[in-house]
Design brief:
Layout (H helix, E strand, L loop, with lengths): L7 E5 L2 E5 L1 H20 L10 H20 L7 H15 L13 H23 L1 H6 L9 H43 L6 H5 L1 H32 L2
Antiparallel strand pairs: 1-2
Helix pairs in contact: 2-3, 3-8, 4-6, 4-8, 6-8
């Protein structure tokens, strides 16, 4: 959903593999994040200064978020949760660079949700054992087995639809705003598109910055909650 045309194709023999724009944008984001991590982690000092101060501040905030929402015993999830937050935020803010956020494509949103789903189930099995994991589906009553199974597997659906729906809606509204302002400029016969230059700024600030950050926070918070509650069920 949200993408109809491939950016380019990779041809292997007689097989054509379409590479969608959201994938290309994700590659670009991963390269930038990797380069940024290398830059911020170079020449680290015992007493931080300059860029190291900002790097440690970001890591501290993310780690504190995990401590506050997951508590003791979940320290190993700090790198994973921090990575999910930074990567998802970067994708949601892609609109500032003139690109459609990759998360406005359902394939990207469902991919993120499935990754979280695997981590949730894997953590529950690791902490409780595979026998307890499967017998828990029949608690507190065996008759609830179908309901418990359905509830467990609605997690990726809920996460993906929430993320995709909000980001896709924001993308559509931004595009409609540009088309509407373009029509107004043409109607008034303005050679300099004043409306196109200044008026979209509040739209971008809300749907690309505010809404993108909110959806990142919601997805990350739900990930932590589901990991904790499922493993302790």
């Amino acid at each position: 959903m949200g993408e109809t045309k491939a950016a380019f194709e990779i041809i292997i023999g007689n097989i054509k593999i379409p590479i969608m724009p959201s994938v290309v944008i994700q590659w670009g984001i991963m390269v930038l994040l990797f380069a940024g991590a290398l830059y911020l982690s170079r020449n680290l000092k015992q007493i931080p200064k300059g860029k190291q101060v900002w790097a440690e501040l970001i890591i501290e905030k993310l780690y504190n978020m995990v401590d506050e929402n997951m508590g003791k015993g979940y320290e190993d999830f700090k790198p994973y949760i921090g990575t999910v937050f930074i990567y998802l935020l970067a994708m949601n803010l892609a609109g500032f660079l003139g690109f459609s956020p990759p998360t406005s494509s359902y394939s990207v949103s469902v991919g993120m949700a499935l990754l979280t789903f695997i981590v949730i189930q894997g953590t529950a099995i690791k902490r409780n054992g595979i026998l307890h994991y499967f017998t828990a589906f029949g608690k507190p009553f065996a008759m609830l087995l179908p309901v418990n199974i359905m509830e467990r597997f609605t997690v990726p659906l809920s996460l993906s639809l929430r993320l995709f729906g909000n980001m896709m809606a924001g993308t559509v509204i931004v595009e409609l705003a540009y088309k509407g302002l373009e029509s107004v400029s043409e109607m008034l016969q303005l050679h300099v598109p004043i409306f196109m230059t200044f008026l979209p700024i509040p739209v971008h600030l809300y749907f690309d910055a505010f809404d993108g950050a909110i959806q990142t926070l919601i997805f990350t918070m739900l990930t932590m909650i589901f990991i904790k509650t499922t493993s302790e069920h």
